[in-house]
From TrEMBL:
<feature type="domain" description="IFT81 calponin homology">
    <location>
        <begin position="22"/>
        <end position="138"/>
    </location>
</feature>
<dbReference type="GO" id="GO:0060271">
    <property type="term" value="P:cilium assembly"/>
</dbReference>
<feature type="coiled-coil region">
    <location>
        <begin position="292"/>
        <end position="467"/>
    </location>
</feature>
<dbReference type="GO" id="GO:0042073">
    <property type="term" value="P:intraciliary transport"/>
</dbReference>
<keyword id="KW-0969">Cilium</keyword>
<dbReference type="GO" id="GO:0036064">
    <property type="term" value="C:ciliary basal body"/>
</dbReference>
<dbReference type="InterPro" id="IPR029600">
    <property type="entry name" value="IFT81"/>
</dbReference>
<feature type="coiled-coil region">
    <location>
        <begin position="523"/>
        <end position="578"/>
    </location>
</feature>
<dbReference type="Pfam" id="PF18383">
    <property type="entry name" value="IFT81_CH"/>
</dbReference>
<feature type="coiled-coil region">
    <location>
        <begin position="157"/>
        <end position="245"/>
    </location>
</feature>
<dbReference type="GO" id="GO:0030992">
    <property type="term" value="C:intraciliary transport particle B"/>
</dbReference>
<keyword id="KW-0175">Coiled coil</keyword>
<dbReference type="InterPro" id="IPR041146">
    <property type="entry name" value="IFT81_CH"/>
</dbReference>
<comment type="similarity">
    <text>Belongs to the IFT81 family.</text>
</comment>
<dbReference type="InterPro" id="IPR043016">
    <property type="entry name" value="IFT81_N_sf"/>
</dbReference>
<keyword id="KW-0970">Cilium biogenesis/degradation</keyword>
<protein>
    <recommendedName>
        <fullName>IFT81 calponin homology domain-containing protein</fullName>
    </recommendedName>
</protein>
Amino acid sequence: MDPRDFEKGSRLLPNLGTSTNEIKEIVQGLNGPPFSYNLTLVSFDEKSPQELQELLIDIITKLNPKQKIDLSTDQSEIAQTVVEFLKVLGYTSNFDMEFQRGLLYGDKRILYPIFHYIISNLPLMQARAYLGKFLVTIHVPDEFLVEEDMKELYQTYKELMAQFQVTHQELEQVRQQALPPQELKRDIDQLELEKEQLVTKISKLKARYQGNEEFQQLLEATSKLRKEQEEEAMLVEKLQEQQQHLEWCEGNLMSAQQRLIDIKKVTASDTSAADMLNLLRVDVKRNREFCNERIGRELTEKIKRLEQVEQLLNEPIVSQKDLDGLQNDVRNLQREVQLLEEKANNAQNPAEDKLGVYKQQASLVSKKKEKAIEKLKSLEQEESKLEKKMMQKEKEYENVKGGNKFMSRDEFTKYSQSLRAKKTQYQQMKAQLRDIRADLAVLGRTEKILKGEAEEQIREMRNLEREHGIEGGFQYQEELEKISAAKQEIDIQKGATLDEIAKIVEELDYKIKENRARLSPLVTELRTARARFQELNAEYESKKAQYDTVNASVESDRAKIDEEVKQLLEETNAMESKYHLINGRIQLADAQLKRLLNEQACRNGERKLSSEYNSLQECYNIKQEQQTKLISDLRNKQKMIKETHDTNSRQVKLFSDLRRFLDLKIRVTEEENRGQGRALRGRDLGGEIGVGGVNRLVLND
């Protein structure tokens, strides 16, 4: 045996068929929950067959506490119980008498594979052990099932078993979909913290507006508003679902109608099979190009997503401890913020809350932000819809360019939906255009009348100016009025701008003063914290330098110890290999010695090998004589066959010639009967007359 096999840690132990890695897995599994035996490789290897049998019984009891096996009972019953339980676990073996004998005697070749099978698949084994008592079918003989009561009871048993399977599968699905308890606990803590914050804010609002008479009405109105908004959101969601379902039904209807039209066209026209095949080829080609384009686009998106995931995976791994620390920091900061808010609220007068305006502005800004986000989402949805429409138009263009007049079901559905939307939009725009044209006609008529009246007034004014010698005054007055109106408008804009600028300056000054007053204690705390940070940073750097020095020395010592351990492990493996080799040879020699002593005792008459033979020598001698006699008989038979071979071959040849001759004679006779229509005449090749019309052949020696 090569010692290098033992260095790899996958050697097979002599006469066991189990590798050391598998034995290590067995020991590790037995040391873990739910067993916790605290074993080592040496202690496990030193266990006696009786202890191994007890260990197997303990494992079975751990898997199924109701499967209690009493070692004081009959050994055959214990073996049968263990075999039945192994069948429930799905262990593959022939379960013959040798296997059961190995179970009873604690044979390692039988028990070690069982241990490894159970330990390596422990969760599955626990599930099978639990389900086995419910799903193992009880065999009932057919003669008992003839009775109606027994038959109904057995059928009920089968139905309950099937119901249990369905219920268990649903339970497993619920367990897989359910969140882990730790995440639920964190969510509960977060919700409780938010609840405390909300309760605090509600109590503050109640204390602030307790004397206000309109507060209760405002509270009821806001509650009704919230309920109406929730109901409106639910109705909008249901409306969207109904619209989607309606579009889906209309699409199916249009596709079915289009397929019906296509089928009618194909059946009504004299389209040949070649034309139909060409149309199908064009359709398949178009669909393939569309699928390739879509798959390429989806592949690009998947590649981008994969790159993002790889970047996330390449980042440093965040452990659960780090997450817990960050969550604790967040909770502490939230508590500090809450305390600061309480201090600020206590320091201020509720009646003179100067931050109310800014809070309202912040709430308005947040609402505007939410509206902007909703608008952005709607625009993104509209963009996706437009992209789909663009792809549809490109597809239609390809269809028109390719000269194919038939559309697929999906294309016709999309095309019908777009036509329906365009038709609705066209009708709306047509109605608007009709109204606009009517208004335009009225306005045009009114404008024409007013222009005529204005021209008449202007002509009269010019005539009056000409009569009084002030021609052009009306025009000058009109221009002066325009200039004065423009100047007045500019002055109004300047005044509004100056007022707005003054107001903004006042607000900025007020905000600056307020922020300075609010930030001054925070700045002081920040300076103190910076000084404290510098002190802690210096201390951290010194401790880190000490740690690096100690760590370097420890790593050096550890490397030396690892090298020594590696050398000792190699020596141990080599000695263990040598031990197993010598042990195997000793076992082989012991077996040969045992066989030799048994043969010597049989020869001396102390015991008998079996009921037929006294010793192995006698058995082998008798069998040798039997084989010698058999060989002699076979040789005599071979000699006789060789001597009679020529005669027998000649006789076989004569009989085969005779058969061919008789067949030929029958065929000739049948041909004569068909040609002449006369009775059968007994005539042979030798010219002798047959008896009774039958041909005869005489053989002479």
